[in-house]
Amino acid sequence: MERKQGSNPEERRICAGSRMGILMVEYILGTLIYSFDWKLQTNVGKINMDETFGLALQKKIPVSAIVIPRLPPCVYAP
């Protein structure tokens, strides 16, 4: 009896770039969080954590943040 290749889920190969993509997103997000001081606008009281459903989850009421560079300006120059 001949067995079809790829019929067993354990034999299938996953995308080689998926792990690298996850690592890059984590690295970029960590760099953004580390490089700037983040503050809420002064008129924001309590943050509403409700979500709206769609293709991706989004906040029902968007949160606006003030971004202040934390590192010296020479770090941000190209």
Automatic annotation (TrEMBL):
Listed transmembrane segments: 20-36
Protein's UniProt keywords contain Iron: yes
Molecular function terms from GO: heme binding; iron ion binding; monooxygenase activity; oxidoreductase activity, acting on paired donors, with incorporation or reduction of molecular oxygen
Cofactor(s) listed: heme
Pfam families: p450
Family matches, as InterPro entries: Cyt_P450 (IPR001128), Cyt_P450_sf (IPR036396)
Alphabetically ordered keywords of this record: Heme, Iron, Membrane, Metal-binding, Monooxygenase, Oxidoreductase, Transmembrane, Transmembrane helix
Domain of life: Eukaryota
Family, per entry: Belongs to the cytochrome P450 family.
Name of the protein: Cytochrome P450
Species: Lithospermum erythrorhizon
